[in-house]
Write a structure and sequence with these properties.
Layout (H helix, E strand, L loop, with lengths): L4 H11 L3 H15 L8 H4 L8 H14 L9
């Protein structure tokens, strides 16, 4: 696979660093590849389905509709 311009630029910058800093860059790069997405699986959230009754949901929807799309000129 051909080396991308970004890879070439990264290598160029890394070559300018002393060994301890190169090792820090390597640790950082490895930490980026080991990041797992945060969050909760949807299956876990299913237990909350139906927790809010229909009447309250309608009130919430109405409040959102009334509050959205309105400009508060002095808010900022």
């Amino acid at each position: 696979m051909a080396e991308s311009a970004v890879e070439r630029d990264i290598l160029e910058e890394i070559r300018k660093l002393d060994m301890p800093r190169q090792e820090r860059v390597l640790e950082f790069a490895r930490s980026l590849t080991n990041v797992q997405s945060a969050g909760i699986p949807g299956e876990y959230l299913l237990r909350f389905a139906g927790a809010i009754d229909r009447h309250n949901l309608e009130e919430i929807a109405q409040a959102i509709d009334m509050g959205c799309e309105r400009v508060e000129r002095n808010e900022w």
